[in-house]
Amino acid sequence: MDRLDDITLEELYDLKDQIDKGKPRERVLAAIGRKQGDQLETLADRHGVVEKTIRNWLDRFEEEPIEQAPYDAPRPGGPAKIEGEDREQLFEQLQQPPTELGYDQQAWSAKLLLHHAKEEYGVEYHETYAYDLLKEAGLSLRTARPQHHEADPEEKAEFQETVEKKRPELTDKTVVVVDQFTKHVGTVQRRGFYPIGSNPTIEVATSWDSVTVLGAVTDDGDSFFCWTEENLTRNHGIRLLEALTERFGEELVVFLDRAGYFYARDLWEHVSGERETETVGDSSVSCVRGDDLEVWYFPSKLPELNAVEGCWDQLQEWFKYRLVPDLSSLKDYISRGVKTISEPSIWPYLTGKDSN
To answer: Fewer CB atoms inside 10 Å of the end CB: C or N, the chain?
Structure first.
């Protein structure tokens, strides 16, 4: 698996979403499977090839840029067909959301760029070159963070500015970001291919049974995951803080959301001995301070500030094609799925700036 050490699952899933079919998609799916721990023999059987072919596919991700790795075609070396002022205009257009140009998509993809180049400039490119154009225009493959429609941008800006200002003090301790994720037992109905003339049915299982995962990521890139079948209460919040202290040491700054089991007087008293919060400096950022433990609270309706949201995106993708028929299977899958998560850097989320 050394071939994929420098590539995250999130990058591979983003690349997969750009490719509809064919051998390039098979190569990306094989890379995803390998990243999730599948053996070469398993991948070879799944994709109908020999193990040497799988190795060759995976080698591409070590030898080529990730956007080029799935494709056979060499990178075009001739002059670009869109040149001069038209090329400058195209790059300016790529800096805008596609919706500004009348497209029903919020972000650019290789396919949309190919369509736009053909319709706007009468030029047809190979899909591999579309990635080169996007990169040359200053775009990169990323996942947009969710934003609540009632989110307050001023509150977000104040929070990030406060964290950035206090960052030198925070890094004297271990900084931990926490979030939660609930997964239910059940069968997911999806469109698929069935024999012509058949009347496909699926046994649909729905259940109130669920498991809630609590996840934590530190500023050093460490992580901690635990889960429970119980509904979360303030006691779970207190026990989580105790577990984090045991795992990462006593001097912690823990960022929590304002869910009732975290934003609770019993938890505040556990941390500080007082049943109330205070603010960070002259800001409105709410916190609770003890001798060695601090708890800071995220503003409401701003999940994009929480790096652990990216962990749940990866876990959801890992579950995507897995049947969860019962609670036992669900717990087993969670224990396996969290091991595939690549921990994101927390500082770009907390401050809006690069992690350096």
So the answer is: C
**Residue at 68 is within a domain:** no
CA–CA gap between residue 29 and residue 38 (Å, rounded):
11
Contact assessment for residue 34 and residue 12, using Cβ atoms and an 8 Å cutoff: no
- Spatial contact of 34 and 1, defined as CB atoms under 8 Å apart: yes
Q: Reduced to 3 states, what is the DSSP secondary structure of residue 221?
A: coil
- How many domains does one find in the chain? 3
Burial of 55 (0-12, 13-18, 19+ CB in 10 A): middle
C-alpha dist (Å) from residue 72 to 17, 23, 25, 134: 18, 9, 12, 19
Q: Which residues does 194 contact at the CB level (< 8 Å), separation at least 6?
A: 200
Which of these, 208, 180, 192, lies nearest to 315 by C-alpha position? 180
CA dist., res. 107 & res. 99, Å (int): 8
Q: Tokens 């490119």: give the residue.
A: 125
Instruction: Read off the tokens for 314.
Output: 């990866």
CA distance 232 to 272: 22
Do 243 and 162 belong together in one domain?
Answer: yes
Residue 245 has what pLDDT? Answer: 96
pLDDT above 90 (res 258) = yes
pLDDT tens-digit map of 218-249:
999 999 999 999 999 999 999 999 999 999 99
Q: Which domain holds residue 301?
A: 153-351
For the chain, give the percent of residues with pLDDT over 90.
43
Contact 137, 95 (CB under 8 A): yes
Backbone angles phi, psi at 79, to 5 degrees: -65, 150
The answer to whether residue 109 scores a pLDDT higher than 70 is: yes
Cα separations (Å) of 83 from 86, 95, 129, 146?
Answer: 6, 17, 14, 36
If residue 17 lies in a helix (H) or strand (E), which one and from where to where?
helix 9-17
Question: Letter for the amino acid at 266?
Answer: D
Residue keyed to tokens 């003339």: 197
